[in-house]
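> example.struct
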């Protein structure tokens, strides 16, 4: 059973933390889904479009502070690298 805070402000912090956690989880899930869509995309054009979507999702999450900006950059870099490998092959 989770600990229920006694102080009123602590109870509010617990409620807001729960809401934020759910919201952050949804955003992170959206990023992971867009990455999977990129990896499963067939063809260069489809992969390019999926890369734009995934990069946009990562940047939005970084701007909101949900993920670190370096993580967003790393995601974009790795996906772009994958795209370049498919175009050269």
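> example.seq
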């Amino acid at each position: 059973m989770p600990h229920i805070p006694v102080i009123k402000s602590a109870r509010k912090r617990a409620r807001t933390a729960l809401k934020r956690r759910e919201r952050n989880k949804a955003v992170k899930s959206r990023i992971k889904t867009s990455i999977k869509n990129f990896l499963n995309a067939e063809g260069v054009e489809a992969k390019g479009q999926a890369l734009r979507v995934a990069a946009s999702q990562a940047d939005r999450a970084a701007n909101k502070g949900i993920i670190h900006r370096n993580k967003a950059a790393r995601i974009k870099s790795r996906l772009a690298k994958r795209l370049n490998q498919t175009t050269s092959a």
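> remarks
The CA atoms of residues 1 and 14 lie 14 Å apart.
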